[in-house]
Amino acid sequence: EFFFSHRMEKRKQAEAEAALSDAAKCERSGWLKSRDLDGAASAYERAATLFRVARAYPQAIEAYMKAADAQQALESAAAAARLLESAAVLAKDNLKAEANAAALYERASELHLGVLSLDRAAAALCKAARTIEGSDTPRACALMLRACSLFDDGEEEAQLRHSADTFGAAVALLLRAGRRSETAALLRRQVLVYARLRRTHDVARSELSAVIINLAAGEYEQASIGCTKAEARPDGFAGTDEADLARRLLAAFAAQDADGLAAAVSDGTLAAVDNTVALLARDLTLASARVPAAYLAPPARRPAAAGSGAASGGGCLASSAAAHASEQPVGTGDFGEMAPEDELEDDDLT
User: Which pLDDT does position 161 carry in this prediction?
Assistant: First the structure.
C-alpha cells in the first residue's frame, strides 16, 4: 500500500510540475503574444491542487500564492483572497507554520476589504487570530480587535449581524487570553450592535457579562459606572433579571456582604451568560475587587452591623434586603441561549 501511495504522489508531483510549466508559458509575452493571465491563474491553481495531493505542501502553498498574484493582476480580488486562504489552511494544518498562515489570512483580509466585503475581511482576520492564539497571544488579540473595528461605520443589517458574530469571537478569544478589562469594554461595544438589531436579550446578558468581568478584573468602579449607564439607555437592560443580578452583585461588594455575594453568584440568571463568564462569577469573592470609599455602603447597613445583605444608593447600587436570593427568585428569560459562536462559517458570509 505504501509503495502504491508513493508512486501516486510521485505521479501527481510530476503533473504539478507540468502545470507549473504551462503557467510559466502563459505568463510569457512577446511581439505577437500578450500574457495569458487567465491561463496562468488556472494552471497555477491546478498545480497547487496536484502538489497538495502529492503532499508537497510548500510547493502547493507557493503555487496558490502565484495563482493569487495572477488573479490580483486580473483585478479579481475575491478569487485571489480565496486562493490565499487555501494556502493559509495548508500552512496551518500541514506545516504547522502558524505565523505564515496568519500572514496569508491577513493578506486575504486586505483583498476582501478592497472590494468592501467587510464580513469576509473580518472572518479572515478572525482566522488569523485563532491560528496564532497559542503562539502569539498579544498579536492574536490585536487582530481580533482590528476585525471588530472594520464594522465601526457599518449601517446595513447584514453587516450588523456579521459584526455581532465577529464581536462574539473576539470576546471569547480576549477572555481566554485573560484580557478582562478589554473584554468588558468590547462587550459594551457589542451591546450597541445588539441594540441596533433589537436583540434585547443579548443586550441584557452582555451588560451583565461586562459587570461580572469588570469585577473579576478588580474594577468595581468601571463595573458600577458601566451598569448605571446601561440602565439609563432604553435598549433592553433596565428592568431585566440580568440588571437585577448586576445590581445585587454590586450591592454585595458595596456592603461587603459575603452571604449576599454567594447568593447572587448562585442565581439561575447566570445560565444566560457564556459558561466562561458564569465560572468567573462563581469564583468571585469580596477580595476580587476593591470598592472605592465613595461606593461603600454606610457601616450601619453592612452585615456586621445590621445583618442586611443589601446596600442603598442610586443606579446599579440601588438594592433592598428583598433582593437577597433566598427571598426573591429570579429568572424568566431564555437561559438556554448560548454565547456567539467562535467560528465564522463561509456559508454565513455575504
Answer: 87
Residue 142, C-alpha cell as written in the block: 490585536
Residues 299 and 34: their CA atoms lie apart, in Å, by 86
Residues 6+ apart with CB under 8 A from 235: 191, 194, 195, 200, 203
Percent share of the chain, pLDDT over 70: 83
88-102 per-residue burial string, b: 16 or more CB within 10 A, e: under 16: bbbbbeeeebbebbb
Contact between 10 and 29 (Cβ < 8 Å): no
Q: Round to whole Å and give the CA distance between 241 and 319.
A: 13
How many angstroms separate the CA atoms of 333 and 261, rounded?
A: 21
Question: pLDDT tens digits, residue range 274-296?
Answer: 999 999 999 999 999 999 999 99
Distant-in-sequence, close-in-space partners of 48: CB < 8 Å, separation ≥ 6: 16, 60, 61, 63, 64, 67, 83, 86, 87
User: At which residue does the C-alpha cell 446599579 appear?
Assistant: 316
Convert the pLDDT of each residue in 31-56 to its tens digit: 656 789 999 999 999 999 999 999 99
344 pLDDT exceeds 50?
no
CA-closest candidate to residue 184, choices 151, 209, 220, 148: 209
Report whether 302 contacts 291 (CB < 8 A).
Answer: no
Q: Distance between alpha carbon 291 and the CA centroid of its chain, in Å?
A: 30
Of 90, 131, 85, the closest CA to residue 110 belongs to 85
Q: Note the maximum CA span of the chain.
A: 97
Our measurement of the distance from residue 34's CA atom to the centroid of its chain's CA atoms, rounded to an integer in Å, reads 46
Q: What is the pLDDT of residue 350?
A: 43
Query: What cell was used for 11?
Result: 505521479
Rounded to an integer, the average pLDDT of 7-14 is 89
